[in-house]
UniProtKB/TrEMBL annotation:
Name the record gives this protein: Uncharacterized protein
Organism: Aureobasidium subglaciale (strain EXF-2481) (Aureobasidium pullulans var. subglaciale)
CDD domains linked: crotonase-like
Localization (cell): Peroxisome
Main location: other
Family membership: Belongs to the enoyl-CoA hydratase/isomerase family.
Lineage of source species: Eukaryota, Fungi, Dikarya, Ascomycota, Pezizomycotina
Gene Ontology terms describing biological process: fatty acid beta-oxidation
Extent of the signal sequence: none
Cellular-component GO terms for this entry: mitochondrion; peroxisome
Gene Ontology MF term list: delta(3,5)-delta(2,4)-dienoyl-CoA isomerase activity
Protein backbone atom coordinates (compact mmCIF):
# COMPACT_ATOMS: atom_id res chain seq x y z
CA UNK A 1 0.00 0.00 0.00
CA UNK A 2 1.18 3.51 -0.79
CA UNK A 3 -0.17 4.66 2.60
CA UNK A 4 -1.45 2.63 5.55
CA UNK A 5 -5.14 3.48 6.01
CA UNK A 6 -6.58 3.93 9.49
CA UNK A 7 -9.39 1.45 10.10
CA UNK A 8 -10.91 0.75 13.52
CA UNK A 9 -11.78 -2.93 13.15
CA UNK A 10 -9.12 -4.09 10.69
CA UNK A 11 -5.35 -3.89 10.88
CA UNK A 12 -3.59 -3.61 7.51
CA UNK A 13 0.13 -4.18 7.10
CA UNK A 14 2.59 -4.73 4.26
CA UNK A 15 4.33 -8.07 4.80
CA UNK A 16 6.16 -8.10 1.45
CA UNK A 17 6.24 -6.17 -1.81
CA UNK A 18 2.68 -6.03 -3.18
CA UNK A 19 1.33 -8.27 -0.36
CA UNK A 20 -1.02 -6.89 2.32
CA UNK A 21 -2.12 -8.65 5.49
CA UNK A 22 -5.65 -7.80 6.67
CA UNK A 23 -6.41 -8.80 10.28
CA UNK A 24 -9.85 -8.70 11.91
CA UNK A 25 -9.23 -6.56 14.99
CA UNK A 26 -11.78 -7.46 17.66
CA UNK A 27 -10.08 -10.32 19.45
CA UNK A 28 -11.62 -9.42 22.83
CA UNK A 29 -15.02 -10.35 21.35
CA UNK A 30 -13.73 -13.33 19.34
CA UNK A 31 -13.77 -11.13 16.23
CA UNK A 32 -17.58 -11.22 16.11
CA UNK A 33 -18.99 -8.84 13.51
CA UNK A 34 -21.15 -5.80 14.12
CA UNK A 35 -22.73 -3.63 11.44
CA UNK A 36 -19.91 -1.09 11.74
CA UNK A 37 -17.42 -3.89 11.05
CA UNK A 38 -19.02 -5.25 7.90
CA UNK A 39 -19.39 -1.73 6.51
CA UNK A 40 -15.69 -1.21 7.21
CA UNK A 41 -14.90 -4.61 5.63
CA UNK A 42 -16.42 -3.35 2.39
CA UNK A 43 -14.37 -0.14 2.57
CA UNK A 44 -11.16 -2.14 3.17
CA UNK A 45 -11.60 -4.31 0.09
CA UNK A 46 -12.77 -1.48 -2.12
CA UNK A 47 -9.54 0.35 -1.27
CA UNK A 48 -7.32 -2.70 -1.80
CA UNK A 49 -9.01 -3.55 -5.09
CA UNK A 50 -7.80 -0.33 -6.74
CA UNK A 51 -4.47 0.16 -4.96
CA UNK A 52 -1.64 -0.37 -7.51
CA UNK A 53 0.73 -1.24 -4.66
CA UNK A 54 -1.37 -4.30 -3.76
CA UNK A 55 -1.44 -7.53 -5.77
CA UNK A 56 -2.39 -10.16 -3.19
CA UNK A 57 -4.24 -10.02 0.14
CA UNK A 58 -3.93 -12.40 3.10
CA UNK A 59 -6.80 -12.25 5.61
CA UNK A 60 -6.78 -13.60 9.16
CA UNK A 61 -8.25 -12.92 12.59
CA UNK A 62 -6.29 -11.41 15.48
CA UNK A 63 -5.92 -13.30 18.74
CA UNK A 64 -5.35 -16.94 19.60
CA UNK A 65 -8.94 -18.11 20.07
CA UNK A 66 -10.26 -17.91 16.54
CA UNK A 67 -10.69 -16.26 13.16
CA UNK A 68 -14.25 -15.23 14.02
CA UNK A 69 -17.19 -16.56 16.03
CA UNK A 70 -19.61 -15.06 13.50
CA UNK A 71 -22.07 -12.23 14.01
CA UNK A 72 -22.31 -10.29 17.25
CA UNK A 73 -25.60 -11.88 18.32
CA UNK A 74 -26.29 -9.29 21.01
CA UNK A 75 -26.16 -6.40 18.57
CA UNK A 76 -28.01 -8.37 15.89
CA UNK A 77 -30.97 -9.12 18.19
CA UNK A 78 -31.19 -5.73 19.94
CA UNK A 79 -30.44 -3.03 17.37
CA UNK A 80 -29.29 -5.04 14.35
CA UNK A 81 -30.55 -7.24 11.58
CA UNK A 82 -32.52 -9.66 13.85
CA UNK A 83 -34.16 -6.96 16.02
CA UNK A 84 -37.87 -6.85 16.74
CA UNK A 85 -39.76 -4.09 14.91
CA UNK A 86 -42.69 -3.30 17.17
CA UNK A 87 -45.48 -1.59 15.28
CA UNK A 88 -44.29 -2.46 11.78
CA UNK A 89 -46.66 -4.45 9.63
CA UNK A 90 -45.27 -7.62 7.99
CA UNK A 91 -44.67 -5.99 4.62
CA UNK A 92 -42.63 -3.12 6.05
CA UNK A 93 -40.73 -5.43 8.38
CA UNK A 94 -39.91 -7.70 5.45
CA UNK A 95 -38.67 -4.70 3.47
CA UNK A 96 -36.39 -3.61 6.32
CA UNK A 97 -34.95 -7.12 6.69
CA UNK A 98 -34.45 -7.41 2.92
CA UNK A 99 -32.46 -4.18 2.88
CA UNK A 100 -30.35 -5.26 5.86
CA UNK A 101 -29.55 -8.61 4.25
CA UNK A 102 -28.76 -6.89 0.96
CA UNK A 103 -26.26 -4.65 2.75
CA UNK A 104 -24.58 -7.62 4.44
CA UNK A 105 -24.37 -9.59 1.20
CA UNK A 106 -22.87 -6.59 -0.59
CA UNK A 107 -20.25 -5.99 2.11
CA UNK A 108 -19.07 -9.62 2.24
CA UNK A 109 -19.18 -9.77 -1.57
CA UNK A 110 -16.60 -6.98 -1.67
CA UNK A 111 -13.96 -9.64 -0.97
CA UNK A 112 -15.01 -11.63 -4.03
CA UNK A 113 -15.31 -8.46 -6.14
CA UNK A 114 -11.82 -7.34 -5.12
CA UNK A 115 -9.62 -7.46 -8.23
CA UNK A 116 -6.77 -8.93 -6.18
CA UNK A 117 -6.77 -12.59 -5.06
CA UNK A 118 -7.44 -13.11 -1.34
CA UNK A 119 -6.05 -15.94 0.80
CA UNK A 120 -8.00 -16.66 4.00
CA UNK A 121 -6.24 -18.13 7.05
CA UNK A 122 -8.66 -19.78 9.49
CA UNK A 123 -7.71 -20.77 13.01
CA UNK A 124 -9.51 -21.78 16.19
CA UNK A 125 -13.21 -20.93 16.23
CA UNK A 126 -14.32 -20.11 12.66
CA UNK A 127 -18.09 -20.45 12.49
CA UNK A 128 -21.16 -18.85 10.96
CA UNK A 129 -20.28 -15.51 9.38
CA UNK A 130 -16.64 -16.65 9.29
CA UNK A 131 -17.53 -19.12 6.54
CA UNK A 132 -19.43 -16.45 4.60
CA UNK A 133 -16.14 -14.53 4.55
CA UNK A 134 -13.96 -17.58 3.88
CA UNK A 135 -16.01 -18.77 0.91
CA UNK A 136 -15.74 -15.29 -0.63
CA UNK A 137 -11.95 -15.65 -0.64
CA UNK A 138 -9.98 -17.34 -3.41
CA UNK A 139 -8.05 -19.86 -1.31
CA UNK A 140 -8.47 -21.09 2.28
CA UNK A 141 -5.73 -22.34 4.62
CA UNK A 142 -6.41 -23.48 8.21
CA UNK A 143 -4.79 -24.72 11.37
CA UNK A 144 -5.11 -28.32 12.54
CA UNK A 145 -7.20 -27.22 15.54
CA UNK A 146 -9.76 -25.18 13.58
CA UNK A 147 -13.46 -25.55 14.40
CA UNK A 148 -15.72 -24.83 11.43
CA UNK A 149 -19.51 -24.75 11.20
CA UNK A 150 -22.35 -23.33 9.11
CA UNK A 151 -24.20 -22.33 12.26
CA UNK A 152 -27.31 -20.47 11.13
CA UNK A 153 -29.76 -23.39 11.49
CA UNK A 154 -28.97 -23.39 15.23
CA UNK A 155 -30.37 -19.86 15.54
CA UNK A 156 -33.48 -20.71 13.56
CA UNK A 157 -32.74 -19.44 10.08
CA UNK A 158 -31.23 -20.42 6.75
CA UNK A 159 -27.83 -18.85 6.06
CA UNK A 160 -28.39 -15.87 3.78
CA UNK A 161 -25.07 -14.02 3.42
CA UNK A 162 -23.44 -16.28 0.83
CA UNK A 163 -22.18 -19.56 2.27
CA UNK A 164 -25.12 -21.59 0.89
CA UNK A 165 -24.57 -20.04 -2.52
CA UNK A 166 -20.79 -20.31 -2.70
CA UNK A 167 -20.16 -23.68 -1.06
CA UNK A 168 -21.70 -25.66 -3.97
CA UNK A 169 -19.39 -23.76 -6.35
CA UNK A 170 -16.33 -24.70 -4.27
CA UNK A 171 -17.16 -28.29 -3.29
CA UNK A 172 -18.47 -31.05 -5.52
CA UNK A 173 -20.28 -33.09 -2.86
CA UNK A 174 -23.82 -31.78 -2.37
CA UNK A 175 -24.44 -34.55 0.18
CA UNK A 176 -21.68 -33.29 2.45
CA UNK A 177 -22.79 -29.67 2.06
CA UNK A 178 -26.34 -30.58 3.04
CA UNK A 179 -25.12 -32.57 6.02
CA UNK A 180 -23.09 -29.71 7.54
CA UNK A 181 -25.73 -27.08 6.71
CA UNK A 182 -28.80 -29.02 7.92
CA UNK A 183 -27.10 -30.16 11.14
CA UNK A 184 -25.02 -27.03 11.89
CA UNK A 185 -22.48 -29.48 13.31
CA UNK A 186 -18.86 -28.66 13.90
CA UNK A 187 -16.23 -30.11 11.59
CA UNK A 188 -12.46 -29.86 11.56
CA UNK A 189 -9.43 -29.43 9.36
CA UNK A 190 -9.14 -33.02 8.13
CA UNK A 191 -12.76 -33.13 6.96
CA UNK A 192 -12.55 -29.69 5.35
CA UNK A 193 -9.35 -30.68 3.52
CA UNK A 194 -10.83 -33.98 2.34
CA UNK A 195 -13.91 -32.26 0.90
CA UNK A 196 -11.93 -29.50 -0.81
CA UNK A 197 -13.02 -26.52 1.28
CA UNK A 198 -9.44 -26.07 2.53
CA UNK A 199 -6.29 -26.18 0.39
CA UNK A 200 -3.65 -26.59 3.11
CA UNK A 201 -3.53 -27.41 6.83
CA UNK A 202 -0.79 -26.17 9.16
CA UNK A 203 0.11 -27.12 12.72
CA UNK A 204 -0.69 -23.71 14.20
CA UNK A 205 -1.54 -20.11 13.30
CA UNK A 206 2.05 -18.87 12.70
CA UNK A 207 2.69 -21.85 10.39
CA UNK A 208 -0.60 -21.25 8.54
CA UNK A 209 0.24 -17.58 8.05
CA UNK A 210 3.70 -18.50 6.78
CA UNK A 211 2.13 -20.81 4.18
CA UNK A 212 -0.23 -18.01 3.14
CA UNK A 213 2.56 -15.43 2.92
CA UNK A 214 4.71 -17.76 0.80
CA UNK A 215 1.78 -18.37 -1.56
CA UNK A 216 0.99 -14.65 -1.71
CA UNK A 217 4.61 -13.70 -2.50
CA UNK A 218 4.68 -16.21 -5.35
CA UNK A 219 1.48 -14.82 -6.86
CA UNK A 220 2.60 -11.20 -6.33
CA UNK A 221 5.75 -11.83 -8.40
CA UNK A 222 3.64 -12.74 -11.43
CA UNK A 223 2.15 -10.34 -13.96
CA UNK A 224 -0.70 -8.43 -12.23
CA UNK A 225 -2.45 -8.23 -15.60
CA UNK A 226 -2.36 -12.03 -15.86
CA UNK A 227 -3.27 -12.83 -12.24
CA UNK A 228 -6.11 -10.32 -11.95
CA UNK A 229 -7.39 -11.33 -15.38
CA UNK A 230 -7.33 -14.99 -14.35
CA UNK A 231 -9.41 -14.21 -11.23
CA UNK A 232 -11.94 -12.29 -13.31
CA UNK A 233 -12.24 -15.07 -15.90
CA UNK A 234 -12.50 -17.87 -13.31
CA UNK A 235 -15.23 -16.01 -11.41
CA UNK A 236 -17.08 -15.29 -14.65
CA UNK A 237 -16.90 -18.93 -15.76
CA UNK A 238 -18.36 -20.07 -12.43
CA UNK A 239 -21.58 -18.19 -13.18
CA UNK A 240 -21.83 -18.76 -16.93
CA UNK A 241 -21.85 -21.50 -19.55
CA UNK A 242 -18.64 -22.64 -21.23
CA UNK A 243 -19.75 -21.01 -24.48
CA UNK A 244 -20.44 -17.64 -22.85
CA UNK A 245 -17.24 -17.82 -20.84
CA UNK A 246 -15.14 -18.52 -23.92
CA UNK A 247 -16.72 -15.55 -25.66
CA UNK A 248 -15.99 -13.33 -22.63
CA UNK A 249 -12.40 -14.61 -22.47
CA UNK A 250 -11.91 -13.78 -26.16
CA UNK A 251 -12.95 -10.19 -25.64
CA UNK A 252 -10.97 -9.87 -22.40
CA UNK A 253 -7.71 -11.14 -23.87
CA UNK A 254 -8.17 -9.18 -27.09
CA UNK A 255 -7.52 -6.15 -24.90
CA UNK A 256 -5.17 -7.42 -22.21
CA UNK A 257 -2.87 -9.58 -24.37
CA UNK A 258 -1.59 -6.24 -25.70
CA UNK A 259 0.00 -5.59 -22.30
CA UNK A 260 3.78 -5.25 -22.13
CA UNK A 261 3.69 -8.04 -19.53
CA UNK A 262 3.52 -10.68 -22.28
CA UNK A 263 6.79 -9.55 -23.82
CA UNK A 264 8.41 -9.12 -20.41
CA UNK A 265 7.46 -12.66 -19.37
CA UNK A 266 8.59 -14.26 -22.63
CA UNK A 267 11.95 -12.45 -22.78
CA UNK A 268 12.68 -13.13 -19.10
CA UNK A 269 12.01 -16.81 -19.68
CA UNK A 270 14.37 -16.92 -22.65
CA UNK A 271 17.07 -15.12 -20.67
CA UNK A 272 16.44 -17.21 -17.56
CA UNK A 273 15.84 -14.04 -15.59
CA UNK A 274 13.20 -13.21 -13.01
CA UNK A 275 10.67 -10.88 -14.68
CA UNK A 276 9.78 -7.55 -13.11
CA UNK A 277 6.30 -6.22 -13.88
CA UNK A 278 5.17 -2.63 -13.53
CA UNK A 279 2.23 -1.62 -11.35
CA UNK A 280 -1.29 -2.00 -12.62
Amino acid sequence: MSTTPDFKFFKLSNIAEYVVHVEINRADRLNTFTRAMWLELEAVYQRLSYDPDVRVVVMSGMGDRGFSAGLDVHEATTTGILREDAGLDPGRKANRIRRDVDELQRCVGAIERCEKPVICVLHGLSIGFALDIATSCDVRICTSDVTLAVKEVDIGLAADIGVLNRLPKIIGSSTWIKDICYSARNFGADEALREGLISLVAADKPAALELAFCMAKLWAAKSPVAVQGTKELLNHSRENSVTNSLRYTKVWNAAYVQSQDVGTAVMSSLRREKPVFSKL
